[in-house]
Amino acid sequence: MVDSLLKFGTFIPLCNQLSASPSSSPRSLFMNSLNIHHSPTAAATTSNQPSLLVFSGGTAFNGVVEELKKLTTSVAHVLPVSDDGGSTAEIVRVLGGPAVGDIRSRCLRLSDESTSEALAVRTLLGFRLPLDARQAKLEWYSIVEGEHPLWKDVSKPYRETIRAFLAYFQNQILRRTNESFSFSNGSIGNFFFAGARIFFQSLDAAIFLFSRVSQIPTESLVLPVISTNDRLTLGCELWDGMIIRGQNEISHPTSGSFQLIDKVNSSALPSRIKRVFYMSSEGSNLLHEVFPPVNPSVLEQLRNVDCIIYGMGSLFTSICPSLVLLGVGEIISSRSCAKVLLLNGTYDRETSGFSASCFVTAITDALNRTYGHLNNSLKNNPSQYINTIFVPKDGQIPVDIEILAAQGIVHVVHVESVQDPKVGIVYEPTSLIQALADLLIGSTNTQS
Question: Pfam families per the record (predicted)?
């Protein structure tokens, strides 16, 4: 573990250097101090493993991440930055910026746990404070002051690095004298992430730091679909014309900021979702539709990976926000690689009454930007975006084979499933990754 500390002991002097040199790039100074040159393309192409790009949210796909590592670690995980629930919402409310909860969640799933210290770091960054506000604040102070038992197996270089950003986060909270921050149910990883993002004024640099602290394999990339320091709100338009603002309100509305989320039993939407789009939460365009550019690293990965996967999860609030951005549909439709839809095993508030072909239509409309500004729309067929569908056995979503065939999709693979007590039918991880391995072998043989 000591050999992989990446000179984090140099961080405290670096803080002083950055404070004294505001005109310098924090990200470049930080990476130079570590003597590391981070290149997503190089990481993906120097490996003999199959390379994948996965569009997903922060929860549903997490269950298969550990098993996926056995097939390949050369995976670009593309995640939205519009989550506005839980402790993420409190950070965004007080400090602004993009939501980092889904990114933090995926980073933790990818992090190392092979040594006692690696496991201790993962446990610390994955820790949640109590729901009781008073107890949460007391425990937070114990952590940020370095006195909490969670620090027991964390060595001094890691401890100093992590505490520096937690303290910086605390300092930013204290500076907002007109806002009262609630630590209730707060994620230590989210606080660390927010501190790093604000310090470096770069979401990419914060992900880079988090990835190194938690020892994510260098060929595994966690990419925000939009690389921004701005606060963005997700909006959706229903077929009855109604507009809903906020990912949480669309997907699983709650009556309180810290109410535990129930994604399965949320009330039905008044009508089906027609499209999702981005809205500004700041400045002169407050709550107007905006068109942020896609993270260039996402487009770069899409051009080179062996397989593109639309992960299971919330269709319109986890998957589609990454698909509606300019350039994504253009590149995916041009690729001849495997393009796999992992069909959900259960209905949720967003997909009530859907069949498999409805999922395909929603993804196609998002990538074609069918209901956005007409000047930016595409006319590609569903089969240009999806050529294989994985279906969990005993799942709720009906597979309408004839309509799928009319959409140009004939390759349907049924995969073993298990019953999850919280969300219902989900893929059995080993079976899912084996099916994916078989598909990639078949795809390679066909291309050769």
Answer: CofD (PF01933)
